[in-house]
Amino acid sequence: MKKTIVFGVTSGIAAYKSIELVELLKKEGVEVFVVMTESATKMVPVEAFEKASGNKVNESLFDENFDYKDILKLRKVDHIDLADKADVIVIAPATANVIAKLAAGIADDFLTTMVLAGNSPIVLCPSMNVHMWNNPVTQENLTRLKKRGYIVIPPEKGPLACGYEGQGRLPHVTAIKQEVMRQVAYSKSLIGKHIVVTAGGTMEKIDDVRSITNRSSGKMGVAIAEECFLRGATVTLLRSVSSVTPRYLMQEEVFESTEELYELVKRFVPSVDILFHVAAVADFKLAEPLQGKTTSTQSLALNLKPQIKISNEIKKLNPRIKLILFKAEWGSAKQNLVKAAKEKLVESNAEAIIANDVSKPDRGFSVDMNEVLLITKSGKPVSLPLTSKQEVAQQLLEELMSIIDSSPR
Questions:
Q1: Structural domains of the chain ordered from first start
Q2: Is 162 a catalytic residue?
């Protein structure tokens, strides 16, 4: 049975790009129904979207021949019917105006009324002037919508139609298509599982002002947390203060130091099924942190000592937990990555190690791409080639399902 996407178009100047996006979605074999606001019809002809989607475009709550008697006789209301059909609702572009209306629960046209009646994932793709995007009201409205479960794909930075430059461009149509199809395709294979994911880099105090940290952005850990969430798991994300934030609403706890992360691990791990330990934890800390703000007028020697290995403590806290660890290496050939991962498997008693080389600037720390090697207790190492961290997360979950399925519900 074909999946159905209801595609909302509002009056952002980027509305013309949505024609291509509808065409791309149709090529994926889904049914697409377009809903346009009245203002959007002034930007792009209705006929262009009808041709792209192959379906009639809805643009008004009341057509020319509207008769309430027909509603009472047929017991069918168009915007409710369309909301019921939707497997995913996407709005691209989403203007500041429609974002504000959705945040306030205002339903005064076909699009907002249909969204309010919907019960499917909603993907918002904001596009607007940089100052409108940065306006606190817009950000507050987006925060409210994210708390309700809306999926927000942030706009890109670049030259804008209004002549300004900054964040406000509609995300690339390929990125939107991938997210929408991800929502269409995800399964509920992890319903009943409670999964903890750690993400980001720890910070170790030098003095009361300075700290030692690393380049981890938390992007890989957050991508895994999001993928688990989409598959129906109850997810607890333990992320560093410097980590990126998830696009979906899930339980979050924030840490700075290794000690803070360890306290969170001790709190959550005894009662959960699976732990993805992705955080880049410091290997060293100061033997004695300095007080106040150290003067910068003279050289400073730091006495470092090894930090606790949280990964080696997890199975002691919960022997039944399924433990999946990340291990970063520098400039290692594949055979050395495999060797290091297998040693870590024994040391931590983990079910799987995901090893990656962080010496290359286009993958690993801080960037959006990754290339990893998956090593389990049984089976040959699996190489996942260079791709986006979201794609890596999806592939890892597929590869690890046999391990995850064996954990208690």
A1: 4-185 (3.40.50.1950), 194-405 (3.40.50.10300)
A2: yes
